[in-house]
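Observation: inputs received (chain + copper (II) ion).
Thought: call the complex predictor directly.
Action: predict_structure
Action Input:
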Amino acid sequence: MRSNRLRRWAVLPIAVGVAGILAGCTQQQLQGWLPGSPDTTNQTSTTIGLWVTSWIVLLAVGVVTWSLIIWAAVVYRRRKGQTGLPVQLRYNLPVEIFYTIVPLILVVGFFAFTARDQASIEADPGNPDVKIEVFGKRWSWDFNYLDSNVHTAGIQAQDRLNDDGSIDESKLPVLYLPVGEKVQIDIESRDVIHSFWIIDFLYKKDMIPGKTNHWYFTPTKEGTYKGKCAELCGQYHSLMLFTVKVVSPDEYAAYVASLAASPDTQGLLGSDYNTLSNDPGTGPAPEPESASTDSGE
Ligand SMILES: [Cu+2]
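Observation:
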């Protein structure tokens, strides 16, 4: 009875405190300093929610733990005239059950919420409006716009070209996406493992030679975003950069039409441009020209 009344009175200051803290927060703080914003794609709010909720729970655990440590250190500190070890306690069953069950609940909880959000982000909604194939290659990107049978072939970022030593961003490969339309991206590699990462979209996925990965999403905010390779892939990994432009469907159509009008960008750059000849599914490696080559390894 008494504890019920106590709980009721405890709720009010906590609610007021949380509301006050949230009211004073910037958007950047509210999303736990993640880049982008909740409305960048149809998936970013899910990712931000998982991130922020996890931090709130973990900080609460941290505050309780740190408080208990400090409390114990202060209350049970060695006082004047005390000698020897303090009374040693062990086998406190309630405490041991508590510190076994609570972390277990936390781990199961984090797992369940992560699995739920991951399943919703990875789900294939079907019937994409736009299908794009991305090839990672050392050290750039090829984009195939599959519905329109056009492509762009990227070149590695040109660094130290500007006077201040920075990268010339105007030369980066650009991926166009129409806002508000369902996009399917097929993710592939021409050589080694890369990772396709659009930073503000809060998503990245490995590009594995011989395997096609997928990403299904809807970009929901027009703008220019930065993309990069997120898997160390060799000497110029850090120059494996690209730009994403999320534009209106009309602008997107105009862009794709401009690619179709140029002989340089017509057709697709398929897996026949891969630099590995022994990918799974591509058949045996070509026979050596000379019959006298060593058979040894
Ligand atoms: Cu790479």
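Thought: report the result.
Final Answer: The CA atoms of residues 277 and 285 lie 6 Å apart. The longest strand covers residues 130-137.
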